[in-house]
Model the fold of this input.
Amino acid sequence: MDSEAVAPGRDRSLPADEAESEERSRSVVRRANVARWWSEWRRTVLLALGCTAALLLVSNFVVEPFEVPSGSMESTLRVGDRVLVNKLAYRFGGTPRRGDVIVFDGKDSFSTSGGTDYVKRVIGVGGDRVTCCDAQGRLMINGHPIDEPYVHPGDRPSRVPFDIEVPEGRLWVMGDHRDDSRDSRDHLGDPGGGTVPVGKVIGRADWIAWPVGHWTRLRRPSDFAAVPAPQSPAGRHG
Done:
């Protein structure tokens, strides 16, 4: 009777020493993978920490973004605009100049509680005499009338008459939207006569960074260059 021969099955098990060797190889691969993962994760964490530290340093000492909270500076700055504030602009001997757009801490001058930040335009510096207004309705600084093309359309330079000599070390500031700005004019009866201490200035707003469609550099208006030096001996050139 024909019969089909059945081949005995092959023993696929490895000798003990070969199995142990293979297990060691797998263990080495696993350790290598873990070491590689840990190295990459540590590098990522260190990079993230380094970037965070750099951003904090830049924000605290160099440039800080500031969101415009109100319409007091329209049409130059609109509600929600993000401006980049140069915190080094006045750190090394420089001082705010007429026409600069600044961000300052209004505590004890504009705000009696908390440390509310404001953004306004510098109109007068220490020693300046700022008056409103001449026969054509223009502000005058040290007797010189200034044209203000940045003032919100339809607004007067000021509906409130005033005549103020800015104390040394302080600033007279106003919003560009004169009919919708609480500025130095609103604090004439307060200590300091509505002026802001130079030491409370956080920095100069140099750029509108956001939104993209409103991106622009904030430049000092050229008309301020023609303002004469104040007559007061303690005054400064702007």
Helices lie at 16-61. The chain has a mean pLDDT of 81.
